[in-house]
Amino acid sequence: MKRLFDLILALSLAIPALLVLSIAVIPAYIECRVNPFFVQTRVGRHQMLFKMIKLRTMYPATDDLASHQVSANSITRSGRFFRKTKIDELPQIWNVIVGEMSFVGPRPCLPSQTELREKRETRGVYLLVPGITGLAQIKGIDMSKPQELAVADAAYLGGWSLFSDVKLIIATAFGSGRGDAATTKNC
Predict the structure, then answer these.
(1) Rounded to an integer, what distance in angstroms lies between the CA atom of residue 17 and that of residue 14?
(2) Are 169 and 133 in contact (CB under 8 A)?
(3) What is the pLDDT of residue 177?
(4) Mean pLDDT, residues 57-74 taken together
(5) 3-class secondary structure, 102
(6) Which one of 88, 107, 125, 160 is separated from 78 by 20 to 30 angstroms, measured CA to CA?
């Protein structure tokens, strides 16, 4: 049922997302002069690696690190807006369509985030399909707090409900979960 919900929602949002992205790619390209889409290897369900797609928000020379490890100076001007409004996440609708992600679930981490991976593994979090948003994001818990994040992620294992997913998606759309570690820390 969750997969069906994800597919229906993803297909419903695909055209509007393409329209928004067709405009957003212009400043993303102008600022960086490279592909406006950013593809990064992430850890998915059963710890399988997959390629997550985002709209580029950081300069190309930025190291491949988690957001909380990156300087706020690495984020482009348009990237600050894209991250604040979550426009940079729209390409992940493709990841949802192909089944690598869900709209709601634990945010996929980088393969290099070993402490977080271990904490999630002990709590069974890798039984879940990773999400664009989730409980931890709504609570403002980012990947700089692996223990706290793994506990929040594991809470989602309690059983899926359409109502709770819709609540989390609406909360994200209306401003919850805007604690982007890269844009909120001091330079």
Answers:
(1) 5
(2) yes
(3) 62
(4) 79
(5) strand
(6) 107
Beta partners for residue 55, in sequence order: 37
Query: Mapping DSSP to helix (H, G, I), strand (E, B) and coil, where does residue 39 land?
Result: strand
Question: For residue 26, what are its two tokens?
Answer: 């212009």
Could you identify the residue written with the tokens 């899926």? 160
pLDDT in tens, 129-158: 999 999 998 998 988 899 999 999 999 998
Q: State the amino acid at position 47 in one-letter form.
A: Q
Please tell me the number of Cα atoms within 13 Å of 54 on its side-chain side. Answer: 16
pTM of the entire predicted model? 0.89
- Give the count of beta carbons closer than 10 Å to the beta carbon of residue 153: 27
Cα–Cα dist 113/64, whole Å:
11
Cα distance from N-terminal residue to C-terminal residue, the chain: 44
CA proximity to 21, closest of 86, 107, 76, 74: 86
**Alpha-carbon torsion (122, 128, 129, 130), positive or negative:** negative
Q: Copy the structure tokens of residue 129.
A: 């399909």
Q: Which of 106, 114, 123, 130 is nearest to 48 (CA)?
A: 130
In this structure, are residues 171 and 165 in contact, taking their beta carbons and an 8 Å threshold?
Answer: no
| 8-36 burial code (b ≥16 CB/10 A, e <16) | ebbeebeeebeeebeebbebbeebbeeeb
